[in-house]
Amino acid sequence: MAKGKSNGGVQNRAIYSRVSFLQQAAVFLASSPSPSPLPPQPLSVPPRHSSTVSAPASAIDSVSAPGSSLSLQGMSRRLATDLRSVSLKTRIRLSPALKQTICKFCDSILVERETCTSSIENKSKGGNKPWADVLVRKCHTCGRERRYPVHATRQRRKGERDVASVDSPPQKQQQQQQDG
C-alpha cells in the first residue's frame, strides 16, 4: 500500500527551524552583556610545594579575552549572515519583521539601545500628516540608516468617502437654523 499524502503541515519545516534557530542565537549573542574581566588572582602550585607563584597579569587577561563582547558581536554577525544566505539559497521568504532586525549593510543584529537607535520622523508640513511617519533605525556598527514606513490609517479618497460625510454641510445649516 502506498503512503497517503498529508495535507497539513509546513513544507521545508527543517529549513524554517534552522532559520529560526539562527535568528534566536544571533539575537541572544547580540544582546548578551559584555562579561566583566576577572580580577587577577595568583596561581598556586600544588600542595607539595610550600611557596605560591603568581602568574603575570597579561597571562590572566589573555584567558578572559575570548569571552569579550566584540567576539560575541562577531559571532552574532556571522549567524545573521548565515541566516540570510540560507534564506537566499533555499528561496524562502523572511518576514518583514525579521528582515528589519538585521542591518542590510553590515549584517549586525539591531537591538534597540544596544546596537541601534530608533526615531520617528515626519517631514510633512508641520508634521501634521500622521501617515507620513517614518521609523528611522541607525546602526551603531556601520552608521547607516534605514527607513521604514509606520502604518497609520489614511483618509479615504474624496470619491470613496461616505455619502453622509459629503452631505454634512447642509445638515449643519439645518441644525444652525433650528438652534438660532
From TrEMBL:
One of its GO terms (biological process) is tRNA processing. Residues 32-69, 150-180 are annotated as: Disordered. Residues 171-180 have a biased composition (Low complexity). GO terms for molecular function: metal ion binding. The keyword Iron does not apply. Keywords: Metal-binding, tRNA processing, Zinc. Signal peptide: none annotated. Residues 34-45 have a biased composition (Pro residues). The keyword tRNA processing applies. One of its GO terms (cellular component) is nucleolar ribonuclease P complex. Belongs to the eukaryotic/archaeal RNase P protein component 4 family. This is RNAse P Rpr2/Rpp21/SNM1 subunit domain-containing protein. It comes from Lasiosphaeria ovina.
